[in-house]
Amino acid sequence: MSDPSEPTPAAPTLGTGAERGLDPSLEEMRRLGYAAVDAVLADQGRLSDRRVARRADSPQLLASIDEPLPRQGLGADSSIDFLFERIVPAMTRVNHPRFHAYIPVPGSFYGFLGELLAAGTNAFVGSWLGGASFVTLELVVLRWIAEAVGYPGEAAGVLTSGGSLANLTGLAAARERYGPTGLERGVLYVSDQGHHSFAKAARVLGFRDESLRVIESDHEFRLDCRQLHDQIRADRHAGRLPMLVCANAGTTNTGAVDPLDEIADLCAGENLWLHVDGAYGGFAALSEHGRGLLRGMDRADSLTLDPHKWLYVPMGVGCALCRHRELLERAFRSDAHYLQDVPRHEVNFFDRGPELSRPARALSVWMLIRSVGLDRLCREVEHDLELARLAETLIAEDPDLEVVVPTSLSIVVFRHRLRFGETEQQRSARDRLLVEAILEDGTLMLSSTDLGGRTALRLVVMNHRTTESEVRRSVAAIRRIASAPPT
User: What mean pLDDT, rounded, does the chain reach?
Assistant: First the structure.
């Protein structure tokens, strides 16, 4: 009981105006918003004239970027200036029209606009109760994506952070089909050209290393169906449980497309789950050329796609589609006391993937498709494929370079020709030196890989900003730098 002689403590007061809350006035928010967009557009407007990438070490970057933890705010104008003066100039520009390394992530203005609106509305898209309208929008976008690539529109799906998480999502659904026996005796099959994320997903989901069978690819770096069939038979004879085949709709190394129809026939006959990793090449189905190469992709039990690659939306949007809704939801279904108000008869994306808190990833895809239309996107993909074939032709004309494998999608794989009296190690060293010299030059960026114990160079075209003149400029730079005497 309180002592009445003691003074009554003053009630706590809440700050008002500038003392409370983080948002400036509407007028100031509008000014800063324009300033931020103007800074982005000013940088993008000079993109083709900028270096694609540069080497940097951590001490150098820390000296430029690190600063004491601010106790008092330095202001948004200062922060925008700091970003574009110190951080952006040192970045690798994966949206550059001459970024030909790895798999480009080009983005687009309409995708950026959708991302901006997603951040501004700050929607929660993990559950129906948390954001029913945005959940509905994502379902619409998933149906659009499925229809665009020829996959069943009634398939269940979820937008993920990228292809790695989409591969994990498909494998998790497959694991549900086989139950605990799958982890005990199950076997998973993947090409030696398969993406590293598949093996990582298998480990995360509890499969032992010996559960993974890596099947050699053929001379075109496609999964060898005869070897696959023989390995499945051998595993059955040994008392193992063949479960799943991961096929590639465009490998990261060479762009090779596995014989999807033949693999689908084999999986149907052997009662195996077919997962198709189309993170790189799946959206090539938007083009007439790509649809022919990807025949059979529509038969997959689960499918990985990456809208932030060949659908030109900003980084951070992958897609997992699955024919078997009940298995997908069994793999990820969540129950907790604090979720008891969530309507379970509606779609809750936390039941279709590992995330509860999810942003409105669909908004960038929706904004792009709705703004420009699918036909325009189809033409852009077709144009990328044509430019890759042009790059292949131009490289093949150089007497010192050779194309390693015919270009199937948009990855041109080439290397130095072996000179008389030269060892393979010496030739490979010239490949590696060329990659470094090109990086130092800054006109473009390539990446290298290993194919059958031999180095190879990769030139990828996957950018709606890339034109014929940019491709010619890139190949001319490659030839110029390759012919320069070593320093």
Answer: 94
Band of the pLDDT at 452, cuts 50, 70, 90? confident
DSSP tag of 351: G
The pTM (predicted TM-score) of the whole model is: 0.93
Q: 355: burial class by Cβ within 10 Å (0-12, 13-18, 19+)?
A: middle
Residue 64 φ/ψ, nearest 5 degrees: -90, -35
3-class DSSP assignment, residue 299: helix
Q: Put the strands of the sheet holding 447-451 in their side by side order.
A: 401-405, 411-416, 454-460, 447-451
Q: What is the mean pLDDT of residues 388-403?
A: 97
CA distances from 190 to 162, 212, 216, 277, 280 (A): 20, 8, 9, 10, 16
**What single-letter DSSP state applies at residue 88?**
G
CB–CB of 206/232 below 8 Å?
no
Q: By C-alpha distance, which of 365, 409, 402, 356 is closest to 386?
A: 409
Instruction: Report the C-alpha gap between 133 and 38 in whole angstroms.
Output: 31
Count Cβ neighbours within 10 Å for each residue of 142-163 and write b for 16 or more, e otherwise: bbbbbebbebeeebbbbbbbbb
Instruction: Average the pLDDT over 102-111 and give the result.
Output: 96
Q: Is the pLDDT of residue 310 over 90?
A: yes
Q: How many angstroms separate the CA atoms of 35 and 33, rounded?
A: 5
